[in-house]
Design a protein that fits this description.
- This protein is an alpha/beta fold and about 210 residues long.
- It has a single domain, classed as Rossmann fold.
- Helices cover about 20% and strands about 20% of the residues.
- It is built from 5 helices and 9 strands, in the order βαβββαβαββββαα.
- Helix 1 packs parallel to helix 5.
- The radius of gyration is 18 Å and the shape is globular.
- It starts with a strand and ends with a helix.
- About 30% of the residues are buried.
């Protein structure tokens, strides 16, 4: 198949599809971290209708930037009109991706306002369900694609933590005992948090390839 991975610079999802024999290309404003020749640098909207050599895409997996969409930052919008405008622009971009002339798509994002402003996701998955030592609720909006298969044997067990109220909860390596993300402030924090976990990348290609 001809597969477009929209808004990906890591190459993880692209290479998961290519390992299975598909003609997969990633596209992002940033160059590819792995310096792959199968990466397009630029606005993905310029490549939605046709890919390299004029191919039309059978499947698109899209990762639109979540900075102005995720629920954790939306509370700032009421105090910052500029940020609110960025959210509207981000939602417009999501709508453009969903309207792309592709046979099937999966759009991925954390929990945020896509659910309330456009439509609810078809599936919500966690990295630990696919063998990664991490917790991050990941929403999937699907068109002509099945939900990801959840294989219980792949589940990565977290550590059990007893909270102050005596409640026992499960946490993973990317979380503090209280459930916060462990990543501290840094210039590339957004980039690290946007990476697709390897197990989920493999599940995308295995289920949709």
């Amino acid at each position: 198949m001809d597969v477009l991975i929209a808004c990906e610079f890591s190459g993880r999802v692209r290479e998961a599809f290519r390992r299975r024999g598909h003609n997969a290309w990633s596209c992002d404003l940033l160059p590819a971290d792995d310096a792959s020749p199968h990466h397009l640098v630029g606005d993905v909207r310029d490549w939605l209708a046709r890919g390299p050599d004029g191919v039309t895409w059978d499947v698109m997996v899209a990762h639109p930037p979540c900075t102005y969409l995720t629920v954790s930052g939306l509370h700032w919008n009421t105090r910052d009109p500029a940020r609110a405008r960025e959210t509207e622009s981000a939602l417009a971009f999501v709508r453009e991706l969903m309207a792309a002339p592709v046979g099937a798509y999966a759009l991925e994002n954390p929990v945020g306002c896509i659910s309330s402003r456009i439509r609810k996701p078809d599936q919500i998955v966690q990295p630990y369900q696919f063998g990664d030592d991490a917790s991050k609720a990941t929403c999937l909006w699907l068109k002509n694609l099945p939900k990801l298969r959840i294989v219980p044997a792949l589940r990565y067990p977290g550590r059990m933590v007893t909270l102050a109220d005596g409640k026992v909860v499960e946490r993973w390596s990317n979380q503090t005992d209280s459930g916060q993300n462990r990543l501290g402030p840094s210039e590339d924090r957004w980039k690290l948090r946007s990476l697709t976990y390897p197990g989920i990348a493999e599940a995308f290609a295995e289920n949709w390839g």
